[in-house]
């Protein structure tokens, strides 16, 4: 028993998080996503809105920690409006809602006066684009009749990138990828993401979407770069803001933003890939 405990502690130390709670949370989130899509797709839109609002809460706290105070309620209202507009109007709804919400949020900042306006406006714009706008592409993936297959394919792709990069990095990681941004991310882990995400893409495109396997392999390759970049961008934000995690909502993961980082950058890429496939193949 002591040996098993020692092994578990060593795995947790190398991973930088508790492994078993992390796995449990991941499986629970995948189950919730599948249920909302299979039962009533509007519930998935509500789930995305909840996740985004929780992410807004975390990112506004992070900016406040660095001395830049922006309005979480105002951005949250704008976020819900973006999600609703995207569900009702598709890509056009997302674009128009973003174009309307951004100036309204900037006008709302005027009541605090000119001091620090540029910093608050920049943080507000980043929050709106980084979370609700990019997350809106999850809604675009879910809207078609085959939305369940599309979103679950997306989940598999991002899951393969994160899970196998994480596991291979724990076991074989020796060479840091970008130590100043994410010390625990290794080239070995990146190779694990590369191999298994391409395999996952080939399998899911063939069996779930009934699209040529090689297209799925190419999309998987793309997701390796978008998901990894999303993870590094969020890590850079935390480093700059002197934070270990964006929150503590999800055991083994940190905050909601720590779970959404690879998702929000990959969703537009996968949506665009599927649109191109539908149009030209």
TrEMBL record:
PROSITE patterns, per database record: CDS
Protein name: Unannotated protein
GO biological process, one term: CDP-diacylglycerol biosynthetic process
Keyword Cell cycle applies: no
Membrane topology qualifier: Multi-pass membrane protein
Homology family: Belongs to the CDS family.
UniProt GO MF annotations: phosphatidate cytidylyltransferase activity
Major localisation: membrane
A Gene Ontology term for the protein's cellular component: plasma membrane
Localization, UniProt: Cell membrane
Transmembrane region(s): 19-37, 91-110, 122-142, 154-174, 186-205, 211-233
Record's keyword terms, sorted: Cell membrane, Lipid biosynthesis, Lipid metabolism, Membrane, Nucleotidyltransferase, Phospholipid biosynthesis, Phospholipid metabolism, Transferase, Transmembrane, Transmembrane helix
Pfam family name, one: CTP_transf_1
PANTHER family: PHOSPHATIDATE CYTIDYLYLTRANSFERASE
Coiled-coil segments on the chain, per record: none
Organism: freshwater metagenome
């Amino acid at each position: 028993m002591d040996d098993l405990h020692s092994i578990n502690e060593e795995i947790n130390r190398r991973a930088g998080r508790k492994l078993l709670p992390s796995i449990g949370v991941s499986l629970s989130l995948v189950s919730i996503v599948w249920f909302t899509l299979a039962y009533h797709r509007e519930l998935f839109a509500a789930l995305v809105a909840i996740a985004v609002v929780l992410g807004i809460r975390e990112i506004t706290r992070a900016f406040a920690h660095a001395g830049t105070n922006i309005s979480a309620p105002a951005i949250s209202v704008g976020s819900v409006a973006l999600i609703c507009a995207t569900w009702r109007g598709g890509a056009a709804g997302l674009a128009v809602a973003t174009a309307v919400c951004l100036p309204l949020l900037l006008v709302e900042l005027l009541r605090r006066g000119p001091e620090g306006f540029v910093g608050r406006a920049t943080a507000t714009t980043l929050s709106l684009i980084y979370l609700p706008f990019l997350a809106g592409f999850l809604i675009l993936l879910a809207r078609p009749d085959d939305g369940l297959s599309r979103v679950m394919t997306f989940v598999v792709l991002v899951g393969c990138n994160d899970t196998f990069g994480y596991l291979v990095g724990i076991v074989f990681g020796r060479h840091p990828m970008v130590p100043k941004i994410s010390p625990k991310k290794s080239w070995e882990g990146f190779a694990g993401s590369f191999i298994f995400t391409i395999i996952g893409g080939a399998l899911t495109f063939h069996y779930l979407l009934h699209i040529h396997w090689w297209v799925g392999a190419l999309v998987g390759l793309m997701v390796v770069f978008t998901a990894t970049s999303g993870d590094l961008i969020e890590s850079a934000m935390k480093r700059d803001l002197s934070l270990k995690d964006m929150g503590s909502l999800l055991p083994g993961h940190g905050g909601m933003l720590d779970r959404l980082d690879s998702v929000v950058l990959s969703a537009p890429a996968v949506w665009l890939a599927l649109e191109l496939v539908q149009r030209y193949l």
